[in-house]
Amino acid sequence: MYSAGTESFLRQAREIQDEELRKFISRITGFLQNQDFGNETVDSLQRLFLIVSATKYGRKIDGKFLELLQTVLHLPKTPEQVQFLCAAILRETSLCNDLSVSWDNIQDTKLLSLAFSIVLAQGSKKAVVEAFGQRVVKVLEGRLPEGQNARHLLPLLSKIISFLPMSLNEDQINLLSKRMVDWLRYASVQQGVPQSSGGFFNPRARQPGPIMEVDGTATTDFFTVLSVGQYYTEDQWFNMQAFSMLRKWLLCYGSNGASSPNSDDKSEVDGSVMSMVSVTSTSSRLLPPKERLREKAFEYCQRLIEQSNRRALKKADGELQKACLIEAITIMDIICRQDSSYVYRSLSCLKNVHSRISGDLSYARVLLPIAQFFLNHSETAAVDSEAVYRHLFTRVPAQLFHSPMLAFEFIQFCRHNIRFFTEKLSIFRQNFPNLFKFLAWNSPALVADYMDLLPALLGTDTALEIFHLLLDLPCVAVALDVQLRSALTPLPERTPVDPSLKPATCLEAYRHPDYRALFQYLLRVESAPGDPGRLTPIRQLLGSMASSPRVVQCAESVPVLLQLYFGVVAEFADGALANKLVLAILERSEQLYGIPAFKAEVYRVMSSQLSILCKLHPSLVVELSPQLLEFSGTVTNIQSKEDLFTDVVWTIGEYASVAHDKRCTVEQINRFFEVLEAMLFEITQLRPLASIPKYSPRAIAVLMTALTKLASRSQDLIPRVSLFLSKMRTFIQNPAVSSTYSPEDAEAILTRATELMNLLKMPSVAQFVLTPSPEVSSPRFHRDTNVSLPLAMKAASQILERGASSVPG
């Protein structure tokens, strides 16, 4: 994350000892007491700031030194850099030291701003923040002394209203609204004069030139933040600062009782045209301060949109155009929410902006506030904005998934409007494969955001496809990487692809005709259900990038989302959907991306959720009996998918009963029994091999229990199970087997075999314990760790033993 040099500096700052720190502070004290503000002092203060800020643990610093920093901070001749460093150190140490900041008598506006930053770091009470606000307003109301600059006060005011909007009364709000109108609309259009550096008076050198536009032409309209000059006047600085805090000001104080941000726009539609006429025809000077500020702010935003059409001569000015365009559209949206008469004045303008920038991907971030505007106001103006949303959800994620800033803003936009999307915008769910590209590329930064988005994307029509997409998310990450590298590879450098040969690399596969369709399906824009089994060849090929950090991080996010997925789906899944999901779990257990840790975590989640789905819909065991029998009858599943295998066997033993499904006949139970019996025999038979494979004691215990449960429901099977259980001691005591199990594991297997065998000696008791009726199992008058199947088995076993040992062998 950091360079080697930076890491070294941070390590030194964190590891410095208290004694060494005291000596270092003593050295700085000497510099400051002598008012030596040279380079050595600046370097020392910078290092001290690094020391106190590089660790989350506070450094206790001598109070006299902190008082000295405050004294230096207030000295008139202290250089600006030293002042900033002193304030920064005081901010970092204010919470760990009893620091009292005196600001009441500060006249210098820059010092007042620095003092407020220290007060905020201390977590000061509302009264202190309110007092600061009153002080700032008082200064802005009057005329500053000669040499003072009010430019530092607007950022300070912006911070104050962020923390305590109610610190200003109505008169002060109106006064500052009038001032903001002047700052925004009536700044000079002539450049500022540079400060004199001495020498002879030169009238031509001091003659200010006109303010320019970003394309190099002289401005013919009022000054804005996009106006360009070599030097700026004081009112021009106020103009730029006022625009920077305009959004916050309108959100805090722009609304009134007639048009609040949460007012119902529908009720204002009928009178909006008349309102628009009255606003445009009445002199803005006759409007109340808040409404006049709204009018001038709207004009300012229109001017910015006009300026954004100009071709900037400098790249930096081009980036500033985009940033100002985003801010202008956002402010117009706020104004329209506060007064719907502005909606009609905004629509044509924003439609033109959208038409102009929709083909330029560098303006993609601007599309978000435009879409937000139409989301908020298209119903009021009866405008169809489907094209705006479709362009946003189809093209932007597909082509700009690799932009971290856009990904964050796009997902925040979706979260902010999630209710509207789920209720009124079908394209949101329809384009969910596109949305997951942001997650595949930017994991794990967006996992928490997708925890909020995923439930909104799930429905009976999308649940199954999203399940497959989550499991294939690492493949999507690889495919995006390949797509990006292929696009960046110049045509002359691309290796020719022979369609008759199997591709050797991912890049070759991306251009290979046999694999092209598979890549297109992985990178699809819209929902398109398909057979996930056809992706098996490409999963194997993409496995070469399994060690890529991006792919590994993407894979780590899948189990978390998968757990949430099943929790949401379980709330609305009917029997048909649950049937498809269980079948998909069994099928996809063989079709996962080749990262061992990823597979293990996915098996763990799927196994636990399969049991929950079958508990909600027990008839699945009968309906999916062929698939369950095939899965539980495969020996390799025990070792490669132990968690999933164990839960499948447990599910069969628990729900293969006529009590859960009338279709579960004796013949069906016998088929389950024969498959599980063959499996248990396979893993417990003694072989003349040098090394006998070790199987999990948990899997063996679950197999024994499932067989016993099935036998209790078809009592003709009891002799076969009892005979099998009686041979477990022989199996465990075999030297080749005993060497593979710990004494605790061997004892657990024997104990379970003993308890089950003793339970089967009384078939009616066995059925009562292993397959209790709902009347017995449902009422739980208390929850206790002792209410469990092992306790019932142990109790029955002890009753039957009657003090005598009865161990199978």
Automatic annotation (TrEMBL):
Residues 449-799 form the AP-5 complex subunit zeta-1 C-terminal TPR domain. GO terms for cellular component: AP-5 adaptor complex. Pfam families: SPG48, TPR_AP5Z1, TPR_AP5Z1_C. Residues 1-279 form the AP-5 complex subunit zeta-1 N-terminal TPR domain. Residues 320-437 form the AP-5 complex subunit zeta-1 ARM repeats domain. It comes from the Eukaryota. This is AP-5 complex subunit zeta-1 isoform X1. It comes from Podarcis lilfordi (Lilford's wall lizard). The lineage of its organism: Eukaryota, Metazoa, Chordata, Craniata, Vertebrata.
